[in-house]
Design brief:
- The protein is an alpha+beta fold.
- The chain contains three helices and nine strands.
- A hairpin with a 2-residue loop joins strand 5 and strand 6.
- The protein is globular and about 40 Å long.
């Protein structure tokens, strides 16, 4: 009888714990979905075009690579051209925004240029403001983060 009581108690605790975990995951997914479904692509596009941006965070496969790229500036043009440059190097590529089943997709393409192939991705928008654009790329290995701050 005691074993049955303990077994039922442990089962109840496990179910309650799993229930809270499912609710927590659902809330996080709702938060991300709300950010991505409420984004006005034209407004985001205008925000990105209006300023120069600096790389304030770049994490690839769990390694912080920000120091390697923090001197670079990005300029996004209305004709879908993006220019990335520092004091000694300048290169152009293409960019675009669209919406897919995962939310807002921020695409960067630097024509497989070795210096910038790390950025050549279809990034998922996490959040943005007039001074910040936060992106991530998730695959089976890791989550990469790419954050741009408005250049002052």
């Amino acid at each position: 009888m005691i074993n049955t009581y303990i077994g039922k108690t442990l089962y109840a605790i496990a179910m309650v714990t799993l229930g809270f975990g499912a609710i927590s995951c659902e809330k996080e997914e709702e938060k991300n979905d709300n950010v991505n479904t409420q984004v006005n692509l034209e407004q985001l596009r205008n925000t990105v075009i209006a300023s120069q941006w600096q790389i304030s965070q770049f994490t690839q496969n769990g390694a912080d690579e920000t120091a390697n790229y923090s001197a670079y500036r990005l300029e996004f043009a209305d004709d879908d051209i993006v220019t990335i440059s520092n004091d000694t190097l300048s290169s152009t590529g293409f960019w675009d925004l669209d919406r897919n089943e995962n939310g807002v997709n921020f695409q960067l393409n630097f024509n497989n240029q070795p210096d910038f192939e790390e950025f050549q991705q279809d990034w998922e928008l996490i959040d943005y403001s007039s001074t910040l654009v936060e992106l991530k790329k998730e695959d089976s290995i890791a989550i990469d983060y790419f954050t741009l701050d408005k250049f002052q």
